[in-house]
Every structure is written in C-alpha cells, then in structure tokens.
Amino acid sequence: MRRTRRTTLITGCTALVIALTATACGGDDPVSAGGGDKSLSGQTVTVAGVWSGSEQKNFQKVLDAFSEKTGAKTQFVSTGDNVSTVVGSKIEGGNAPDVVMVPQVGVLKQFAEKGWLKPLDEKVKSAVNANFAKVWQDYGTVDGTLYGLYFKAAHKSTVWYSPEALEQAGVEAPKTYDEMLKNGRTISDSGLAAFSVAGQDGWTLTDWFENIYLSQAGPEKYDALAAHEIKWTDPTVVEALDTLGKLFKDKQLIAGGQKEALNTDFPGSVEKVFGPKPDAAMVYEGDFVAGVAKDQFGKTIGTDANFFPFPPVGKGQAPVVSGGDAAVVLKDGKNAKAGMALVEYLASPEAAAVWAEAGGFLSPNKKLDLSSYGDDVTRATAESLVEAGDTVRFDMSDQAPAAFGGTKGAGEWKILQDFLRDPADPKKTAAELEAAAAKAYGN
Amino acid sequence: MTTTVVKEARRSSPARPDGARARRSRRRGRVIALLFALPALLLLGALVVYPVLFSIGRSLFDASGDTFVGGENYAEMFRDPTTLKAIRNTAIWVVVAPTLLTGLGLILAVLVEKIRWATAFKLLLFMPMAVSFLAAGIIFRLAYDEDPDKGVLNAAVVSIHDAFDEGSEYPTARARDGQGLNQQKDGSYVTGSPVSPGSATALGLVGVAPKDLPADARPAQQAAAQEAGADEVRGVVYLDFTPGGGGKPGVVDSRESGLPGMRVEAVQGGKTVASTTTAADGSFRFTGLKDGSYTLKLPKENFEQPYDGISWLGPTLVTPAIIGAYLWIWTGFAMVLIGAGLSTLPRDALEAARMDGANEWQIFRKITVPLLAPVLTVVFVTLVINVMKVFDLVYIIAPGPVQEDATVLATQMWLVSFGGGNNQGLGSALGVLLLLLVIPAMVFNVRRFRRSQR
C-alpha cells in the first residue's frame, strides 16, 4: 500500500494524528486556474487523488499547464488514504470526479469490474502506444480494455547507501547479489553494519522478497505468483525465502540483528544510514528514501546519499519492481470528455516534464527528455526505470488483495516479520504464506 | 428506560378498578404513556435495536454480502487462531484490568481520605481521564519504546542497570573466522594454537568503527614487530582493518590501529595464570611465565553487549504493557467513585469498631470493604463492560509485528471488517460474539440498579 508507506515516513504514531489532520484539511477547496482561449474553456475537470502536500502542489502545476493549453478549469480533490471508499461514495452521491489518479493495480481492477470506468479513447491509446513500454499498458488494462494511464511511477529496486561508509570499508557498489553480501561483510568488518532493515513495517519486507523473487525466479513466475496461479509453496518461493533468510540471519549484515530490525520502522531504517549517528551503510527501499534522507536528515542526494540498482540474484536479471499512479476517467463524471482530454495531456512528455522539473517524480514515459529531471540521482533512477522497459513488474503485494498484501499485522506482512524473527524454516513460512493467500484470494 | 416510564404512568392512574370509566381512563393513560415514550423508543430502535439486528443478519452472509452462508462465519471465526488469541487476550483483560483497578482505586481512596490536600491528590490522579485514548496511546507507545534514547521506561531501566554494571569498551568487536582466534560459548576468544614464552602473537579483531576507537589508540605495526624476550609472551591486539580497504587479513598493516584497554589472559590447563591490559598501541606482555604452552584468552568482559533494556512491546509483555497504560487512565475514575462511596459510610459503625479496639486493618477488612461492596461491584462491572470494548490503546500501542499477539475482540472485529480483510460478514459475527459476552455484565448491572431503586 503505497499511501500507507508515505504516511509511515512521519515517525511512528504521530503519523496517525497527522494523517487525520491531513485528510481533514486536504478537503475540497477548489484550486482553479483558468484563462486561455482554447477548446475546453468554460468546463471544469475535477481530479481526485491520494496526493496532498508538496505532491498536490506539484501536480497542480501540471493541471495549470493543462488549463493554459485548453482553457478548462481544474479542481483537485485529495481523497486521503482510501481512494476506493471516497470515490465510491462520491459516485453514489452523484458527485463523481471526472478523473481519478488510482494508486494501485488492484484498485484499478476493482473500479473497472464495478463498471465505473470509461475506456480510454483512441487518441490516448495511440499516445500510450507510442510513449510507454508495453508493460505499463498491460497494467492499465483490464480484460483487454485500456482504462488507466500510468502518469507517475515509483522505482522500488534501489539500494541506498552512504558513499562515505562504502569508502571507509574500501568497497564499491556491487554488481551481483552475492557481491552485495560479500561487500556487506567487509563493511561489517569496518565496524558498521551492512544493512538496516525496517522490520517493524511489513511492507519493506515484502519489497525485499519481491526483488529477490523477480530476479531469481524470473518475470513469468512473478506474474503467476502475483495472480496466485502458482502456489506460495512453489519451490521458487522457498528458494527466494532461503536466499532472503541467509541475509536475515547473518548478524554481521543487519544492524542490531533481527531483534532490532523488528523494532525499526521505515523512517528509523533511513535514519540508521543517513541520520546523525549512522549504524549501517545501506538501506534497501524505493526511490522515496532519497526524499527522507534529504528532508529529514539534510543529506545532499548524490554526494551524501546515493543508490545502486538492486543487483541480480543468481543467474537472473536485475529486478525492477515498481509502482505507480494511473489516471482513469469515470463514466459518471460531469465533464468526462474534458477529463479524457486531460488524460491525453498526461500521456504526453510535455505534462511529465512539468512535474519532473518540480522534483519528487518519476515518469514511465519513455519520450520524456531525461534532462527534465532536476538532479542526477533522480535522472539515474528514471533512466533505470525506462530502460528496464517490459521487464518492469508491479509491486506484488500491491497487486494482492489487501488482506494478504496490505494489512498491518496480518497476511504477508506479518508472516514475513515472523520469518525475520526466525528464518530457520523457509518451507514452513511458504506454507503459511500459501494458507493466508488462499484465504485472501478466495481460491 | 422505557419500561420505567411506562410503569410510572401506570402507577399514576387510579389504583382501584372502578368499572368502565376506570378502564377507559387506564387505557387513555397507557396511550399517553406510549406517546411520551415514542420518541425515545424510536431513537432506541433506530440507533440500537436496528443495528444489532442488522449485524446479526449480516453475520449470516459472506464478505460481499450477497450469498447466505448460515453459520459459516461463526465456524470460520473459531477456526481462525487469531480469533482464539483475541478471545484469550480479552479474557486476560477482563479478569486483570478491572480487578487491579478496583483494588487500586479502593486502596487509594482509603488512603487519600486520611491525608491533607486530598482534593489536589485526587485531581492529579483523575487528570489522565481527561486525556483521550488516542493521545494516551501515543504517549505510551513512546514511553514503552525499546530504544533507550526514545522510550523513557527503558531509559530508566538501562541507567539503573548501567549504574551497577558498566558496558564494555568493544561491544561490536569480533574476530574473523579462521584467523587464529576462536569464539567460545560465553563470548570470549581464545587462540587456536598454543603460545610459549619467547614468542610474539598478533591477535586481530574487526568490527570496530574508527569513530568508536578510544582517543589514545595508536597504530600497532611497530609493537607487533618487536621480538619477545626469552621469558616473556608478548603480542598485540589490533584492529585488523585498514580504513578505506586494502589491508590484508591476519597481517598488521601500517595504518591498522591497536586496541588499547583490552584485557588479555594467559591460560594454562584451564586456569588463568596471568592477566594484563593492552597499551595504547595494543601491545601486551606477560613476563616471568614458566616454560610450557599457554593459550591466550580475550575474556568476555571485553565484548559484552550494552544492556538494551526490557522489550516492553515484545510478544510476551505487550498485553501487560497495554493494561498498564489502561490503569494509568482509569485509576482516577475508580478512586473517585469509591471515594464517593466511602464518604457516605456511616461514621458510627467505624467509631464503634474503634471503641471496641479494632485496629485499622481489621476495620478496613471487616467494616469498610463489606459496607462498600455495592459500590465496588458497580465499579467492577462498569469496568468489565468498558474493558470489553478496549480498542484504541491496543490498536495504537502494539507495533505491527506484535499486533496479532496483542489483539482483542474489538480490534479483531475492526481489522476483519475494515482494516484490510474487508469481510464484514465475519466482522459482524465477531461483533455478535462481543455482544453476547457483554450482555451478562449488562444484565447484572441493570438488575442492581433496579434493586437499588426499590
């Protein structure tokens, strides 16, 4: 659950309070921009999405650019964490937004199956064909119809490190998983733990697993497992767990050992590497680590903090696990036509460039000029995402039903936390995962 | 409530039946009574009876609410080990929390009665009641944090512990495998091959960050190169890692530092015959050792891990810890209620007992408690009902990995229905179970109220 992730950036429980206020004040105040003389003047496009704060501000810049071009007014409504509930109630109340930025594949599918979505029209389709890798089209497609356009993406196969710590240990950014562990042990010899693992947040563990699994078992198996077409008791799963377990149980590799890892939340794990008193040299998580390192700990990205792509495991390819927000058009929106025009605009490299310049944004749009990004590290992340092309895979736990892949203290999160506590028996863990998955998928 | 109203109305009508007129007026009385009760009945029906019935109905359907599944949700509920854990935890809560609270409240109320500034004291204890559960939960989540830098409880525990037992200089140091030092079960290191007088050894350790080295540490190479005299065993304990890499394992390279202040023991036949401490360049020497072979040992004191406190929010302690937070909030309530009961006790009974020579303990046990029994029961039962629905504290204080270990029926009901599972059928079944468990306590309380009204 990407949104939950972002809230966890704010330390511990304060997040709760802040989340509550954020939802309260992220309300409906219309931010409209207008003027222009173009075809859509006089219409207002309402857009709903999970963004708030600086993301909302930057997206507004994109909307403003749209207004300037077409003359349509725009209004952004922040839904808070639970998009599907908010959008559902708005549709029932006869006040449906025209465009929704959907944060998960599962939600997109759910919307499409409920019949809320308008298929994207030919113009958008051809733009998507020309500008995006096929995999992004597939993730926007339900039962052969294209509904969603992935406007913003996340790169979840980045390992962030402190260049100073690696230099201290005299090692380079690794090229393979085994080399990563070997370098990790050298780093540990230098007196710093290799990794800080945020075991208190289950989603970071699922991301660890997904990267290893995608690389080790390959994209086909990954897709099958994500759809629960193969069981979690499959030998490939056991093998991936075994690989992960080797890392988990190595006291030299994990800051403070398993017990401390279980007591570390995501912001805490970033603090252990980029905070004032570093305990570890590397932390694995998505591109948003940079944001935390920069905003909370004042690190300069590129010099004090850098990343290397999650290295390939065994004989596999380097994994690229991703996530993203897709724009969809609702059938019940009052200005669905203008909404479609907005989605068409979002499919253009021009729209992506607006946010890319503002920062905190990756675009899956391959036509976007990489020089639009504000800094080298973001550029490198974007490049790696676009270059991965069709091998990009969506975060598996985000594709799963929430009961399995997105619930604190239950399902995959909880089982992998148990595995972190005691990685002795991957087979047993696989069986537990299968039992939980079977229940959640209902098959 | 409604029943009382009806009864009152009936009572106010003429008592003796007097033919048709009396009957008519009684009927009219009844109609009026019903009219008065109607708004209350409607509200009660809409807000209590209807939701209860709806939940019972919903519990017979599956997650989507379309398919009738009968008792399947109830069966599923008891098949799920999490529910059983929730029932077990709720049972612990119901037994422990009200008992402790009533006891604490009673003791405090009796004690407070006898001190000056009683009101100020009561006010102070009552104050947590003004804090919302959410805020209290966040406060205690922090207080219980395992990191002594964050959690105040562990900060206290650790500082008390460290006052008696200081930590070691090199908690993170360890030897490389296969470089001549072997780790023993107790955490100490011994040399693999024996040493004898006239020889020098280099004991390499790793895992100490440059910033963690003592300020007086010096490079060890020179000391390592020194020859040993015929009657001495000498050597150096050094950090076998060159900052920036490039050092050879097992070799004292030029920039590698000695580890000062390390205890070294010479052991022969399992007995420590000599011990010393390393100098600034990591060197040590034993002189006047008899011929023979010795093992060098770096005892475990060198490597002792810093004490990191109690894991309050670990799987075992999490429920007691949350109950502790609950006590903090509710003790004031119990104390004030019992204190009010205490102030209405007949003073003459206490005086009489005192005159008869009873001591305070006897008075407390034989007179105060029995006379207070009704109040104590009300407090206890109210708390039982209250504890049944405890949710916020458990949800906020328990961290993700132990949430399942701390779960109670109310949190489980919410998690299953809205917190990801989205199975409102199963959630309703849990709600019905909770209702069934609360009903006896409620019936008991209502009965008591009725009796005391009579």
UniProtKB/TrEMBL annotation, chain A:
Pfam families with a match to the protein in the record: SBP_bac_1
SUPFAM superfamilies: Periplasmic binding protein-like II
Origin superkingdom: Bacteria
Keyword Electron transport attached: no
Keywords: Signal, Transport
Signal peptide stretch: 1-24
Cited PANTHER family: ARABINOSE-BINDING PROTEIN-RELATED, OSMOPROTECTIVE COMPOUNDS-BINDING PROTEIN GGTB
Annotated family: Belongs to the bacterial solute-binding protein 1 family.
Name of the protein this chain belongs to: Carbohydrate ABC transporter substrate-binding protein
Species: Streptomyces composti
From TrEMBL, chain B:
Biased segments, Polar residues type: 180-195
Alphabetically ordered keywords of this record: Cell membrane, Membrane, Transmembrane, Transmembrane helix, Transport
Membrane topology: Multi-pass membrane protein
Chain intervals for the UniProt region annotation (Disordered): 1-23, 171-195
Transmembrane segments: 31-53, 91-111, 123-144, 321-342, 363-385, 425-446
Protein name as it appears in the record: ABC transporter permease subunit
Annotated Pfam families: BPD_transp_1 (PF00528), CarboxypepD_reg (PF13620)
InterPro entries on file: MetI-like (IPR000515), MetI-like_sf (IPR035906), UgpAE/MalFG_permease (IPR050809)
Domain ABC transmembrane type-1: 87-445
Family: Belongs to the binding-protein-dependent transport system permease family.
Compartmental location: Cell membrane
